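Q: What does the predicted 3D structure of Lipid II isoglutaminyl synthase (glutamine-hydrolyzing) subunit MurT look like?
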Amino acid sequence: MFKINIKFYISVIVSKIVMKLSKTFFKGGSNFPGKVALKLDENILKTLGKDYKVILITGTNGKTTTTSMIYNMLKDSSRKVITNHTGANMLPGIVSCFVENFKFNDNYTGEKYAVIEIDEANVKFVTEFITPEIITITNLFRDQLDRYGEVYTTLLKILEGVEKSPFSTLVLNGDESLLGDLPVPNERVYYGLNFPLQDSESLDNNADSKFCKKCKSPYTYNFITYNHLGDYLCESCGYKRPPLKYKVDDIKDLSREGSVVTIDEKEIYINQPGIYNIYNALCAYSIGRELGLDKDIISATLKNQKSSFGRQEEIKIDEKEVKIILVKNPAGYDQAINTVSLDDRKINLVTMLNDNYADGRDISWIWDVKFENLSSLNVEKIMISGERLYDMAIRLKIAGLPEEDFSLCENYDTLLDGIKGCESNVVYVLATYTAMINFRKYLHSKNYIDKLW
C-alpha cells in the first residue's frame, strides 16, 4: 500500500510539473502530462477518479458541445465539477484533466462530478479503472474510416467499455437505430425527437445505417430527422425505436442564432443553431434530469450556452464576423451546411480539409457530402485551404459551385488576407479537426483569439 501511494504521488507531482512547463513554453499540455503520469503509474486513474461521479460522453458527433452543456448545468447548479474542456478525449488527455484538478490537501467532502468527453475507442480504457455514474452515446456515423471502419465497428468499440461497467446508467439517443436493445445489463434511458423534420420517409442513399441490426432487412420510418436518425421500424422482425423518456415535442423556431423547442411541456431556448444542436441539448437535458437538476436551471443554462473551441465559435477579425464550425464526416458536414443555410445574409465560405491522423487519412467521405446545397446560398467568395485544398476544390467544382469565386489559400497568411478582403462581413469557416486546431493557433498568434484552450 505504501509503495502504491508513493508511486501515485510521484506520478502526480511529475505530471503537474510537466503540465506547467507545457503550458508556459508550448501553449499546450492537454495530453503529454497524462502520458507521463501513466508511464509512472499505470493505475493512476483509479485513484484520481475514485471521489468523482463521472459522466462519460461518447459518440461520433456532438461530444464537445454536449459535454460543455452538461458541465455548465452542473456548475450553474452549484455543484463541484471538472471537465476536459480542451477536447483531449483519449486516455492521456483524460488523465491530464484529473491530474490538473487534483489537490493534495483537498478537504472537500461533498459530491464532486467529472463530465468527460471520451473518444469512442477509449471508453474501455477508462472503464477499466472508473465506474461512471452515466455513459451517454450521442450517435454513430461513419467517421475516420481508416481508424474505426463502419458504424458497427464503432459500436463494438464502445460496448467493450460499457461491458466493463454494468452498473452505469446508459443515456442513449433513441433515434439512433444502432443503440436500441443493446446486449448489456445496464439500465437504459432513451431520448429523441417526437415529430418529423422533413417530408421524406425514405433514407438517403448515403445514410449510414439502413438495415436492421437484428435481421438485416431495410428499415421503414414513421419519420426521419437527418441521415439515419428517426422513428425507425423493421417490418420483418419487429425491431423498432424504444420508448423515449425525454423528447422534443415541437420546434417552434429555428434560426441562425438558435432554436426554440418544447421538452417535457417546457419551452426552452437553445443558444446554438441547427438540428444537431437540438439533439446535443436534449442529450444534456436528459442527463441533467437523471442527475436531479432543476428544469429551470437546465433551461437557463441552454439559453446562455456559449459556443466553444471551434464548435460554432465566433471570432472578430477586424470588422468581419467569423464563425468556425468543426466538420469531420458526411452527416456532420451536411448538418453544418443546413445550419449555414439558415443565414439569409450575403456570406463568405472557407473550407479547410486536412488528412492527418486525427482527421482520418481517408478523405473519400467528402464525396458523400451534399455540397450541391451550397449553390442555393448567397455566397460572395469561397476560400479553400488546408493540406488537401485541391481535392476540396475539385469536389466543390463538381458540386456546381462557380470556380471563378474560388480562392485557393495555400497558407494562413493568404487565408487571413482573403478573409479581411471580403466585401460582406459574414464568414463561415468549415474546417476538419487539425485544420481547425492549427488555424486557431495561427489566429491566437495574431491576437485574434485570446484563449487558445
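A (community wiki): The C-alpha cells above were generated from the sequence. The chain has two domains: 2-304, 311-445. The chain has 14 helices and 17 strands.
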